[in-house]
Amino acid sequence: MADKKKKFYQLTLQERLQVLQDSGGLSKGETAAMSGAAGLTASQADHMIENAVGTFALPLGIAQHFLVNGKEILVPMAVEEPSVVAAASFMAKLVRAGGGFTASASAPEMIGQIQILDIDDINAAERRLEGATEELLALAAKADPLLVKLGGGPREITVRKIMESPIGPFLVLQLVMDVRDAMGANAINTALEQMTPAVERISGGRVLLRILSNLADRRLAKAACAIPVDALAFNDFSGADVRDRVIEAWAFAEADPYRAVTHNKGIMNGVDAVVIATGNDWRAVEAGAHAYAARSGRYTSLSRWSKGPKGELVGELEMPMAVGLVGGATKVHPSAAAAVKLMGVRTAAELAQVIVSVGLAQNLGALRALATEGIQRGHMALHARQVAIAAGAPEEWVAPIAEQLAQEKNIRVERALEILEEWRAR
Ligand code: NAD
What we know:
With 426 residues, the chain is an alpha+beta fold. The protein has helices at 13-22, 28-35, 42-48, 84-96, 122-131, 133-143, 145-149, 185-203, 239-255, 257-277, 282-293, 334-343, 348-371, 376-390, 395-408, 413-425, and strands at residues 60-68, 71-78, 102-105, 109-117, 153-162, 170-178, 206-213, 220-227, 303-307, 313-320. It has 16 helices and ten strands.
């Protein structure tokens, strides 16, 4: 049993895994998959991609203190950057002072596109396709009877005219499909292919691309939090000061794309780490996030921070969240399957709600640090450890060398090598 008096971060690796078994409900095999002792094998990888030679590991940490819609969640995060897991845990603790995160998700609707070229009369073809939406929806439904049985399936068809392009005008048919607990790319792409012969016949044109859109703006997840102002105070900063500084820092991102992209990158530090840990497609989520941030025509912040009626700090984050629990690597990858089990999420929508909450926590962590004492202080201690490891320090020397580097304010590999040489000589 792990020492109950110790905080999770004070435990040894082995003790933390024991906690995941004792209170996270994981089996020995599942914690082994998370620890790296077991997990994805080279032969499993060989079935997943081409020319496989092995697997590639990332650090996996568990963020603490997350309360999402009243439910305690242990959040697995796969990320190589120091401070991310600590910041998420710390901010989740602050948010807890205001009752935790309130999160919601829209229906899991994804969009697929069919590009139709070589049309004689674009307006007439558009009208014919619009008149045939029932027939086309029925064809799309046939592609995935299981999805329909589960309550998902095709929902809507729209036809868009692209009048100006390097190849002249063409039509785009867009299919909206509820993909339930899947990410949905394969489900959508199969449905689009099923519709193709009919789309060509009805439009009189030639179908070229049939592909999912990663601008998943019909599949949004939203998280909000309200932190009592007193909970924000630390060191010489009053709670009101911290709140106002966070809002001022957010306003910079709201107004300026150069700042907004870094602000959103901070959100993605949290989002991607959970997306990766659960075996989901992080390129899809990244692409969707940034396109959504630019939806007004000007790239801006994905989040919003303001002062609430009682002086509390109110945070909101809304973004597309195309993640699934079935399909992709989530079921195949043993560590991802264990991560999903640990979180206790039962639907893709619940997973999306947790991910967007982590994104909001990460955003607050960055804004709070940047707008008060700066991020380098906390960052450097962890960075120093990585530098010590890079210099080849043996495990028992990593912490003391990192400490010396930080004290000397000279966190460079060359200096770590010098220290190593001195210590070895002794
Ligand atoms: P999938 O096809 O493996 O699984 C989805 C299918 O599982 C559904 O079509 C359904 O038949 C079945 N299913 C069983 N139970 C279900 C449930 N509860 N909810 C929903 N479906 C259920 O996976 P997918 O999500 O369609 O595709 C995801 C993969 O596609 C990812 O690996 C992604 O990287 C890849 N991909 C992405 C893109 C892109 O992002 N542009 C393009 C192509 C492929």
